[in-house]
Amino acid sequence: MLRFKMSPSSAAAFLRFTFWTLLISPAVSLTCSTQKFNKNQVFSTCIDLPSLSSYLHFTYDSPIATLSVAFVATPPKSGGWIAWAINPKATGMVGSQALVAYKNSTTGVPVVRTYDISSYSSIVPKDLSFAVWDKTAESRSDGSLVIFAKIKVTADLAASGKINQVWQAGPGVGDGGMLVKHEFAAANLQSKGTLDLKNGHTSGSSGGDTTIKKKNIHGILNGVSWGILFPLGAMIARYIRAFESADPAWFYLHMLCQISGYAIGVGGWGTGLKLGSESPGIMYSGHRNIGIALFVLATVQIFALFLRPKKDHKYRFYWNIYHHGVGYAVLVLGILNVFKGFDILNPDRKWKLAYMIIIIALGAISFLLEAITWVVVLKGKSGKSNKPYDGCNNGQGGRQTLAT
């Protein structure tokens, strides 16, 4: 076996080199200024884009209105895609003219395709509204892809010196170049802004933040209403009413929870409709259909309170069946849809965990109250069966039947 000897000074030098390499290497990967390309292309400006760990290198030739770009990003999955786009008239994805890169599924060689994204429902390769040439792509050892292209900037954009840029990354590519939808997390929604061609900087757009705020409001309203208030109201109606001393307080508490839950739920339902109208290409069918069913059932349930027969009415039995059936349907669908909302919104894990703790606590309380109320009801029935008559008739000890 060969053995190598190293002097103390050499060992110290090696350790220092290793330490500084480990210290500097993360920083190198996090800035565009240190990035190199396979063919050593050089650009006058580079920008660390504010989301999706993406980078833009570009050179703008003002006299001939030509923009040379190199866009660097990493697909979320192997076989995924990256995209950089210009939107000539708006700030979002719809209407953007996109350059998309992904690895060919057969050869594994990265390719670039152009997409005219007129709507979310139709995202297929198509020529752009402006001239683009020298389109190439390369893959990097860190798993990222690079899009290279030269773009003819239109006269109106050249006059302003600014363009609306959009960038994105998605998980895969289907048949015919159909792009698999990207995620709708905060980073994906914030991946847009204005690029100043002359001064070489970019400004972010607040549209993503606004959408996230609306989603959070939608989630909070529906979580509180369908996910907490309606189950709490159902618990009050089932368990508290078993105690005679709680009558009629249980009924008013039940009404308060259900009407408050309905009012808050309508607000959450309205924000959901607003989000849907602002994102025509984004469809969560299951969540949406359950939300519509909840709104209809809860509306019918609330209006049924005004048609509530008296206790001795011949139709009260059927009304009770309907009221309980619809109520439990709202209860189950509401909790189910809250969890579907968590999967869509994908908040910090602590929020889903907190809601699960609340539901488990309500379930445990229900289990305990179920046992207690059965004891109360059975004792009440036992007391009545052991009392064959009610008092005496003129002190003669004769039986007097109970009034019903």
TrEMBL record:
Q: Name one cellular component (GO) term.
A: membrane
How does the entry describe its membrane topology? Multi-pass membrane protein
Q: Where is the DOMON domain?
A: 52-170
Keywords from the UniProt entry: Electron transport, Heme, Iron, Membrane, Metal-binding, Signal, Transmembrane, Transmembrane helix, Transport
Q: How is the cofactor bound?
A: Binds 2 heme b groups non-covalently.
Entry GO MF terms = metal ion binding
Pfam family of the protein (one): DUF568
**Signal peptide coordinates:** 1-29
Q: Which InterPro entries match?
A: AIR12_DOMON, Cyt_b561/ferric_Rdtase_TM, DOMON_domain, UCP037471
User: What is the protein name for this chain?
Assistant: Cytochrome b561 and DOMON domain-containing protein
Q: Give the species.
A: Gossypium raimondii
Q: What taxonomic ancestry is recorded?
A: Eukaryota, Viridiplantae, Streptophyta, Embryophyta, Tracheophyta
